[in-house]
Specification:
The chain is of the alpha/beta class. The chain has a single domain, classed as Rossmann fold. It contains 10 helices and 8 strands. Strands 2-3-1-4-5 form a 5-stranded mixed beta sheet, sandwiched between helices. Strands 6-7-8 form a 3-stranded mixed beta sheet.
Length: 193
């Protein structure tokens, strides 16, 4: 092998080590899904308006992106993690559904009495903004699997900061969706506006 060829191979190997692979949906979900579900049900229990939207049963809708296998996988993980849990001493009913558009989501929430919506990964910013517009004025706690979702469309999201899970809360969106989190919870979250 010539010296130039060895040098090219060495440079290629170095580039592969130094250049990170493109982000995948796996990398976007910084906080493990079971831990997200534990945190979600705890935060939901501190929503002062939860009793009005979930008298005896807390209905949770897990939204998936229909063309994303990772989205479906995370949704199934979330549903498994929620099995047997309660929110404010109320049992949970979990449904997984592919997202079509904001107005259809708003109708579904109102017709079925959905108290919590959780968006699995895979949604583009424009889709999240459509969801946020559709949910404005509807009493529902929206949440997302990926930290960036709180900037574009949901009330609550999760991030990993210095190796520890961090809750992100969008207060304006919370007000828009009639979510009134106790001050006890707000002490432990990062507020996003």
């Amino acid at each position: 092998m010539g010296r130039r060829r060895v040098l090219r191979i060495s440079l290629l190997a170095l580039a592969l080590v130094l250049v990170p692979p493109p982000l995948s949906a796996d990398e976007e979900v910084a906080v493990p899904v079971p831990l997200q579900m534990d945190l979600l049900v705890k935060v939901a229990g501190y929503d002062k308006n939860l009793p009005a939207r979930a008298r005896d049963l807390v209905r949770i809708l897990i939204l998936t992106k229909s063309d994303s296998g990772k989205s479906s996988q995370v949704a199934r993980q979330a549903a498994r993690a929620l099995a047997g849990k309660t929110v404010a001493n109320r049992p949970l009913e979990v449904t997984i559904a592919a997202h079509s558009d904001g107005p259809a989501l708003a109708r579904r929430i109102q017709e079925r009495g959905i108290a919590i919506v959780y968006a699995a990964p895979g949604f583009a910013q424009a889709e999240l903004e459509d969801i946020a517009r559709a949910l404005s004025g509807i009493s529902v706690l929206s949440s997302g699997a990926v930290a960036r979702f709180v900037q574009s469309g949901v009330v609550l999201s999760f991030d990993l900061v210095s190796g520890k899970p961090k809750l992100l809360v969008h207060l304006k969106r919370a007000r828009d969706q009639n979510v009134d989190l106790s001050s006890q919870v707000l002490k432990f979250v990062k507020v996003v506006e």
